[in-house]
């Protein structure tokens, strides 16, 4: 009721109301609720949250409080992150008011109760309703229907009146608006905006999951019209003003199913014993201009999203897969970083140039790896690829010797049939051919950042920064690895990149490799975009940016524009404007990563559902007081064995050693242990797998 009163008065900031007028608007038609309403009004006046003039009440602009973003947890609590300081405050569900996950809120923050606990807060008002629509399952219930949100961080169902069904039927996945939400004890109200399809359709499941995480799947008509109108041929005048590299042996290396070719390479000897390496990047900024519908949509999306069964591109297909893509045997426009590298793998010189190229070969990673292995030596691409591998190996060695960290995690690929059902789960091996491309992209990105940051007059620019880990998290990691007999030395309360890298090298091929690597990744800060350069901790680079993927990342497009502007003698860009876009792109990147990760997990759980009752080997990936997490070796997915189901003994969790120990038999489970399990259930909606630990462990 408190939030309903505040919301009503805020919606009418220029008017004042008598108490019975407010009660009538809020449909408080019984005496008991009206008495509660009166008491609530008095408390709001006393708290100076509303104004009273005689017998009338009015909205009061709130100047106090803290502004933050609400992140709700499925279990009913949440956190509000202060937009100014990044401090996190704990919030209980009853104190969220009418805020929903993702909303910008103003909160009152309480005093610190304990040094090891976060301060608590309460929502005073919703500053910006960022969650205006929800994706979920449509369920009619007599005189109305509810939509059960797919995103379990949305803690309430949405009520839909019968005249707002828009053709939805029971069990459909739908998009529903959030039109009205005035009381935490009630449900939000909305209308069906779009019917996606049947909830059991595997393709609809992935689509609805992505949309529930704010992934934009369709391009508006004005964007498509603009893309269709772009001229496909390159004017001769454009070719003549660029560095013409069409005679160079330029090649691409990409996954088998790639369609958007962002980058290409050339390698050739110079006359003075060094190597010329060309990193050629699709010149998206030539086609995507400011103040256009394509530009606005690209900025809104900020990134392409690679779901388990499809790619949701940042740019319309005509640009991402055709005009901008560096396809073989076609003249294409590029923005190139041409570098001179000596025999020790050190950068001697470089230039950034607008070029026209003609890719001679489109190689897959497997084809490139075959050349590296010595296969097909007479192929015209064999020697350039082997040279590229040799140079990239020197770059890797120099980077690792300089204190870089190589987590070296493999990527999971779910193989789907024509209907979208999973038929296999495999690991995409990270081969030397993958590292070859990675190293040249790292070097080009580093060189682009250095060009601006290390100049005599550094102008505002976009950097990709990675802060040092949180001291508390890294201390916990240091304690954690001691349990396995490893050491992570701390200097001034934190770990250096070199020491963390040494730890990762030490656990290679050990049983605990997976669990320690994941723990280390969780201890890391999140890399973000910003105009404030602090270097990149994980790479141990003083300068770094993203230059090499403008087809799929909006920050790279901004970097291209800034480089061209500064190379031509342009004035400094507006730093505040750039910083705002950096913050937004960092946020959208996190959303995209979550959607990608959850879409893969969705299919992993569906695959596990087909194996209920089957037994598997796995590795204990985590232990908590409520159970043992196990990653299944063959399915490459994690499940939970609940302690309530471990009935062969009375188990006690030892927090200091991260061990679950049986009190009578002494059986223990700790991260890194190999175990045998049986799948007992798999919930696709929750993306959870329940396991049973077998007695032969």
UniProtKB/TrEMBL annotation:
What chemistry does it catalyse, as a reaction equation?
A: Exonucleolytic cleavage in the 3'- to 5'-direction to yield nucleoside 5'-phosphates
Q: What class of enzyme is it?
A: hydrolase
Q: Which SMART domains match?
A: RNB (SM00955), S1 (SM00316)
Q: Name one GO biological process term.
A: mRNA catabolic process
Q: What is its EC number?
A: 3.1.13.1
Q: Where is the S1 motif domain?
A: 613-694
- Check the record and name the Pfam families matching this protein: CSD2 (PF17876), OB_RNB (PF08206), RNB (PF00773), S1 (PF00575)
A GO CC annotation recorded here is:
cytosol
Subcellular location field: Cytoplasm
Q: Which UniProt keywords apply?
A: Cytoplasm, Exonuclease, Hydrolase, Nuclease, RNA-binding
* GO molecular function (one): exoribonuclease II activity
HAMAP family listed in its UniProt record? RNase_R
Function, as annotated, reads: 3'-5' exoribonuclease that releases 5'-nucleoside monophosphates and is involved in maturation of structured RNAs.
Q: Which family does it belong to?
A: Belongs to the RNR ribonuclease family. RNase R subfamily.
Q: What is this protein called?
A: Ribonuclease R
Organism of derivation: Longimonas halophila
């Amino acid at each position: 009721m408190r939030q309903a009163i505040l919301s009503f008065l805020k919606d009418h900031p220029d008017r004042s109301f008598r108490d019975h007028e407010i009660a009538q608007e809020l449909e408080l038609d019984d005496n008991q609720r009206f008495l509660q309403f009166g008491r609530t009004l008095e408390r709001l006046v006393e708290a100076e949250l509303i104004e009273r003039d005689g017998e009338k009440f009015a909205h009061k602009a709130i100047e106090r409080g803290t502004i933050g973003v609400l992140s709700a947890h499925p279990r009913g609590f949440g956190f509000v992150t202060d937009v100014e300081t990044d401090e996190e405050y704990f919030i209980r569900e009853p104190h969220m008011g009418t805020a929903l996950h993702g909303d910008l809120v103003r909160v009152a923050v309480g005093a610190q109760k304990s040094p090891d606990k976060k301060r608590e807060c309460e929502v005073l008002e919703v500053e910006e309703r960022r969650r205006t629509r929800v994706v979920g399952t449509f369920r009619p219930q007599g005189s109305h229907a509810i939509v059960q949100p797919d995103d379990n961080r949305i803690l309430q169902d949405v009520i839909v009146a019968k005249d707002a069904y828009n053709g939805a039927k029971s069990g459909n996945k739908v998009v529903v608006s959030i039109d009205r939400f005035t009381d935490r004890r009630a449900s939000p109200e909305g209308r069906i905006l779009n019917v996606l399809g049947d909830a059991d359709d595997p393709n609809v499941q992935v689509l609805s999951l992505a949309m529930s995480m704010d992934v934009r799947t369709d391009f508006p008509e004005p964007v498509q019209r603009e893309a269709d109108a772009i001229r496909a041929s390159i004017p001769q005048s454009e070719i003549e003003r660029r560095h013409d590299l069409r005679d160079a042996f330029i090649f691409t290396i990409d996954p088998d199913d790639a369609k958007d070719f962002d980058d290409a390479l050339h390698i050739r000897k110079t006359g003075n014993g060094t190597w010329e390496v060309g990193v050629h990047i699709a010149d998206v900024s030539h086609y995507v201009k400011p103040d256009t519908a394509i530009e606005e949509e690209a900025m809104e999306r900020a990134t392409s999203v690679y779901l388990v069964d499809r790619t949701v591109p940042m740019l319309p297909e005509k640009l991402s897969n055709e005009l901008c893509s560096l396809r073989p045997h076609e003249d294409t426009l590029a923005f190139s970083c041409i570098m001179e590298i000596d025999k020790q793998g050190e950068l001697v010189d470089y230039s950034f140039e607008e070029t026209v190229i003609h890719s001679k070969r489109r190689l897959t990673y497997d084809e490139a790896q075959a050349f590296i292995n010595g296969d097909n030596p007479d192929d015209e691409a064999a020697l350039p690829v082997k040279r590229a591998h040799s140079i990239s190996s020197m770059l890797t060695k120099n980077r690792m010797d300089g204190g870089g960290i190589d987590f070296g995690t493999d990527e999971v690929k779910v193989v789907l049939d024509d209907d979208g059902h999973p038929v296999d789960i495999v690991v995409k091996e990270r081969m030397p051919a993958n590292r070859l491309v990675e190293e040249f992209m790292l070097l080009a990105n580093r060189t682009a950042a250095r060009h601006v940051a290390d100049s005599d007059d550094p102008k505002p620019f976009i950097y990709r920064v990675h802060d040092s880990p949180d001291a508390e998290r890294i201390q916990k990691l240091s304690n954690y690895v001691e349990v396995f007999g490893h050491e992570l030395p701390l200097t001034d309360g934190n770990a250096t990149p070199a020491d963390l890298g040494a730890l990762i090298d030490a656990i290679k091929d050990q049983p605990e490799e997976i669990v320690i690597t994941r723990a280390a990744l969780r201890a890391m800060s999140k890399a973000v975009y910003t105009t404030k350069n602090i270097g990149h901790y994980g790479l141990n680079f003083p300068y770094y940016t993203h230059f090499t993927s403008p087809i799929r990342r909006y920050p790279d497009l901004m970097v291209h524009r800034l480089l061209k502007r500064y190379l031509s003698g342009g004035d400094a860009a507006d730093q505040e404007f750039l910083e705002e876009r950096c913050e937004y792109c960092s946020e959208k990147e996190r959303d995209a990563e979550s959607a990608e990760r959850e879409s893969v997990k969705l299919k992993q759980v569906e695959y596990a559902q087909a194996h209920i009752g089957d037994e598997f080997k796995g590795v204990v990936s985590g232990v908590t007081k409520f159970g043992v997490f196990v990653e299944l070796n063959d399915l490459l997915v994690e499940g939970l064995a609940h302690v309530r189901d471990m009935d062969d003994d009375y188990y006690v969790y030892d927090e200091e050693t991260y061990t679950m120990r049986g009190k009578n038999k002494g059986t223990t489970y700790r991260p890194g242990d190999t175990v045998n399990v049986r799948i007992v259930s798999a919930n696709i909606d929750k993306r959870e797998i329940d396991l049973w630990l077998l007695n032969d462990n």
